[in-house]
Amino acid sequence: MSTGAVIGLGYVGLPLLVHMAEAGHTVVGVDTNADKVATIRSGQFDLERDYGSRAGKLIQSGQVVVTTNFDELAQADFISICVPTPLDGMKTPDLSYVRSATVEISRRLRPGQTVVLESTTFPGTTADLVRPILEESGLHAGVDFYLAYSPERVDPGNPHFDTQSTPKVVGADDQTSLQKIVDFYGSFIENVVPVTGTKTAEMTKLLENTFRAVNIAFVNELSIMCERLDINVWEVIDAAKTKPFGFMPFYPGPGIGGHCIPLDPLYLSWKAKSVNFFSRFIETAADINNNMPRHVVEKIIRMLGTAGVPGHLAKVLLLGMSYKPDVADYRESPSYEVMELLLHEGVQVAYHDPYVPSLPIGKHVMESVSLSDIEAYDCIVALVRHSAFDVSDIASRAKLIFDTRNMFQGIDGPIVRLGDGTRSQQSHGDGKHVVPLRG
Ligand SMILES: NC(=O)c1ccc[n+]([C@@H]2O[C@H](COP(=O)([O-])OP(=O)(O)OC[C@H]3O[C@@H](n4cnc5c(N)ncnc54)[C@H](O)[C@@H]3O)[C@@H](O)[C@H]2O)c1
Predict the structure, then answer these.
(1) CA of 84 to the centre of ligand 1 (A)
(2) Measured between alpha carbons, how far is residue 286 from residues 10, 89, 277, 300 in Å?
């Protein structure tokens, strides 16, 4: 058994630490956030699959140490870096967290250690940023210490795959580094996929997430096209996915969210520009996806107007604020932007989300309301398909529903769907659009 270290104990780092330790390795977890370290130590850290309480038990047994002190890295044979890689205010990559974590390692680096970058980033980060900082220690990569890149592909909320059962791509720029990390990760991850070079591994992650962003953008564009052509895009997708080969369904929605899909493609297009390559697919996809919240809000305001309720007098309830179903994470959630745009229109907005009890809105905190008062709202906007929602009950009480996720499929009621021209755009022949209102 070895001693591992994980730097950055968030959605990615803490599960990695737990799986490493549950396989029998001794593990040190380092995070700069002292409050988070204290919560993890108490076993109360709230993360899916009981990772928080599992970490607490491993800490109690002495197999795991969680700390803010980077000096604890000295005992580790393998150090995995899982710190954030956000975009800055100009939508360019912010590698400051990766840089500062690497500097801390470099100050303490000793011969024989293996460093693995896990944070999502553009091709060349491991070789051109991390390696030179580590070599400031006087040690050489591939000779004195070992260096690899392994993207985290975990899909939070996915009941079928976790960190351990999702195949793990690893790349290194020399054979010894590759073998070391394949052996170590292979000791607690079911399937390790070695590739040639750190850049290939970095690019693999960006291909996967750019693929999703581009396909979601395409189907979002198609949904708007269907609205104009009086076609129901959801029925089209359901029919198309009966083809047993050559088609993979993606679904429209109010935009894209989370820490990965909206950001990762922009890491790639930013890097591509450094070699004078402009990715039209990535920019077009970002443009379409980023405009979806606006499209949704324009539709809501139009529907309310048709129902005789001007926006500034309307009361709207948003269903779901997280970025995807059955998770609490609301980072980059498009629901947030839908809310802000509605508030900007003067609409009185409330939200309900069983996973997000409160939400910072500017300098204020908004709290999730109960569903007891559905009848009081002029429109219910379905934004996230949480499995806890009782859609039949909501449909039976709502005056008007705008469904951006087709979660009211097959249910009768005053429902208008995103991407469904067949109900929201129907004309009486007098040029007026029909909105099936109740009440
Ligand atoms: N969340 C996901 O679903 C997901 C999936 C795949 C990949 N990723 C990638 O994994 C990386 C980490 O994402 P996350 O969601 O776990 O982030 P997170 O914000 O949940 O956790 C990051 C942790 O790193 C800590 N940290 C920041 N700077 C540090 C430093 N210099 N030293 C030590 N700790 C530091 C923070 O306090 C925080 O606890 C990102 O690059 C992200 O793009 C995330």
Answers:
(1) 4
(2) 26, 16, 17, 22
